[in-house]
Amino acid sequence: xxxxxxxxxxxxxxxxxxxxxxxxxxxxxxxxxxxxxxxxxxxxxxxxxxxxxxxxxxxxxxxxxxxxxxxxxxxxxxxxxxxxxxxxxxxxxxxxxxxxxxxxxxxxxxxxxxxxxxxxxxxxxxxxxxxxxxxxxxxxxxxxxxxxxx
Length: 150
Hints:
SMI1/KNR4-like; two-stranded antiparallel sheet; globular
């Protein structure tokens, strides 16, 4: 599903799309606290966990880099003296330049809401009602930017 969306948007023209194995998916879940990853995210990882073409290539978003993102978020919160405890069931799947992080809660919802937290000190807030919406919206943003350059 995700790979076809990326290909249809032309985001695979310069960089390949590659997934990761079930063992690598489990490695991610263990690295961020033994969480049970949602079905839609597992599907994304199987299809695009190592790279998604132009999509998110400027972010920390792919294996193996995402293994350390929860730890990096906790460190950023401590450095910035932000008093927000990251829930144990949170899985941090994306970061932009170490100051903006995206996560969802692993709470048995197959397509969970996506939260954003920044180094500015505000509490996390929902940016998308589901992970699949997050991906669709991001693909559209990249597609718009990619086609504007042509």
